[in-house]
Amino acid sequence: MYGFILFIAVFIIFILIIGIHQKNTNAICVSRRRLEGKTVLVTGGTAGMGLEIALDLAHRGAKVIIACPFEEEGVNARKQIIEETGNEKIVFKLLDLGSLKSVRVFAADILKSEDRLDILINNAGVGVPGDFLTADGMNFIMQVNYYGTFLLCILLLPLLKKTGKPGEPARILLTTSVLHRLGQMDINNLNKTDYWYKLQIYANSKLCLVSVAIELSKRLEGMNVVVNNVDPGAVGTKIFESGNKYVGFFLIVLINFLFKTTRQGAQTALHVALDPKAGEVNGGYFQNCELSKAVKKAYCEKTSKKLWEESVRLVHLSDEELETCFR
Predict the structure, then answer these.
(1) Active-site positions?
(2) Cβ contacts of residue 110 below 8 Å, gap of 6+?
(3) Whole-prediction pTM value?
């Protein structure tokens, strides 16, 4: 009994030491850049880390478009951002990344209604809510976290290219996760149900984002648009409640205490969106406000190209659309 109590005490002390170290080494975005006249789009910008990102960019004077599939949440978030920042240039639009039709309607609306897009922050994502196919025939977690985001980035390229200029490129951010290191690039089986553990599907989706960013960065050379991955670290968001509400609540409290709150988790995205030197990087992986390295398998050119081709096929991008987006 004494040995067990001692073990628990040592374990708690160990966890506290980790937490103190983590909290003391969390980086923050130090940029004071103003964004008057700029337009930013934040998917998932209505709650959690995305809302913190949107609030910060609104404080800087940007026109901020926030997007999510829940109208009430979006309306409330828009109201909150305006009240807290005094910035009236806040727009909410519905976007369901789990529907290719919704992504296409949303992108067409943005292309029609906006004359510029300086920064596209792909923050939206899901945890492990379920292992099932969408109406588009794709695994739900994969479609929301990866395929829907992939399609959105490609469709918005004409506006991003129009906005970017030498020395000040338009920026695309993809929100990955440290769990991408557990991902598998088994392209023929990525969309299967009852094949992977749900956590594995999540990890696969985040690895795909890292891999496709590298391939996309090559295709964007000379177009004044850069794309980079952002790993926010362990952040206590409601994404943890997608599996089990009670376990999720415990994890949120623990992670907020030991690792990062949503505001702290937003800092790397803000750094990559605002920092001048980050704007010179294309195809990079950022962690804790610094350029870092993703898992080695993410840099396989053969796999990245194969993933690109399969992604184009699954989201039904035509040759004409690709030509329009990349010419």
Answers:
(1) 202
(2) 41, 65, 93, 117, 156, 159
(3) 0.89
